[in-house]
Amino acid sequence: MRLSLPSLLLFTALTSSLQAKVTLDPWSYTETDLYPSAIVSTATVDWNGDDQIAEDKKTGDDPKPSKKEIPLYGDENGWLAVDLTGLPKNAQVEVTISIDGFLKPSTWKGKVTRITKAGEARIFPKALWDYDALLKVRQQRPINVTFQATVNGVAVPDDHETYVMRSINDCMFYVLMDEEGEDFDDFSWLFAAYVNENHPEVDMILKEALKSGIVSDFSGYQSEEPKDVMMQVFAIWNALQRRGIKYSDVSHTLPSKFVVSQTVRFLDDSVRATQANCVDGSVLMASVLSKIGITSYLVMIPGHCFLAFDLGDGEDAKRIGLETTMLGNDEIKSVEEIANLTEKAKLTEFKASYKTFTSAVKIGNANLKKYKTELADDSEDADPDIQLISIPDARDLGIMPIATSKDSR
């Protein structure tokens, strides 16, 4: 059907009026920086549990937002969205977001039934991320992000933005919600994503630890003897020392305006380079301990990270600290060379390694005691720089280990 000239003019006027009225603004939880480590490791996390926040998914039992809150539609767990202002009531809306090379065109379609007085709504399309591409980002790079929308079939002007895709090694610590830094969201548990108990290198480390003869097996808590747990941890410590792992304070992270982050090496990077900073060494040890069923923690204190682990599997189990930066304090032979050592030489090396291990435990325990009150504080006013990150709790939350392309053989 062809429109008559008056109808065409009226349609054109209505279209122009709608385009002028509805405005589109890009929205990103981390502003113009995107963090592949967070996107990948939280791919299956539902932040709100059983409660639905998105208007198009709510049931009668879900909480109602306050009048001041912008109504949300689509994937409430998303990192990217579009804010629309000036929407008419019950508008049919379509929103698409895409990123060259990383995000396939991701679209939300539906009726916007609830808006603010200014006609505002925030739309989160279900993001179709290319996870393989995200895992390969080892250096930050600029990316083109396109935001598009139509309202009642009329296109709103597109918005094209240049964002920064951060390295997969950049781990978010916390996100500032205001420029003063007084309000923030804690993301310290994302460090658990770098703990990878499933990495093939973990089995190699355990085999090498058994060759030392310090323990005959790795049974975790099965013996119910704390001393057996300590010897298993020491056997792993000794094996990593024999790998030649040295402390290296290479942790420079490019600054972001609203995100505090830390560079973290993957397990295989630390092993291959035979060097690790405080976070890297703790992640490495936690990966191996988690594999054998020993509950481990990453302990964050101002300017530093160390490891902690439980001597038992009960709630009242004693917690032990371990200063992993001391891994490189001894010069001992590799696992392959143990057979060529005399019994006296073996004993000398084991004594030296154990002495360093006990010193690392002493320092770790001292820091656990020093920050005991702050580490137990889970209130909103807790210091974000002092955190006890439980690996099992992070897994229960849905934080998955980041599996790099080098994890499979």
Can you walk through the features of this model?
The chain has 409 residues and is an alpha+beta fold. It has two domains: 5-168, no CATH class; 185-407, no CATH class. It is 29% helix and 26% strand. The protein has helices at 5-21, 36-41, 131-135, 200-211, 226-242, 267-273, 278-291, 343-370, 372-375, 391-397, and strands spanning 23-28, 33-34, 72-74, 80-85, 91-99, 103-112, 121-124, 128-129, 141-151, 154-165, 170-176, 184-186, 246-247, 259-263, 275-276, 296-301, 304-310, 319-322, 387-390. It has a six-stranded mixed beta sheet with strand order 2-10-9-5-6-8, covered by helices on one side. Strand 16 (296-301) and strand 17 form a beta hairpin. Helix 4 (200-211) packs across helix 5 (226-242) and helix 5 crosses helix 8 (343-370). The longest helix is centred in the C-terminal third of the chain and has 28 residues, at 343-370. The model is unreliable at 5-19 (pLDDT under 50).
Task: Please name the defining characteristics of this protein.
409 residues; single chain; 10 helices
List strands and helices in order, with pairings:
Elements: H1 5-21, E1 23-28, E2 33-34, H2 36-41, E3 72-74, E4 80-85, E5 91-99, E6 103-112, E7 121-124, E8 128-129, H3 131-135, E9 141-151, E10 154-165, E11 170-176, E12 184-186, H4 200-211, H5 226-242, E13 246-247, E14 259-263, H6 267-273, E15 275-276, H7 278-291, E16 296-301, E17 304-310, E18 319-322, H8 343-370, H9 372-375, E19 387-390, H10 391-397
Parallel strand pairs: 2-10, 3-7, 13-15
Antiparallel strand pairs: 1-4, 4-7, 5-6, 5-9, 6-8, 9-10, 11-12, 11-14, 16-17, 16-19, 17-18
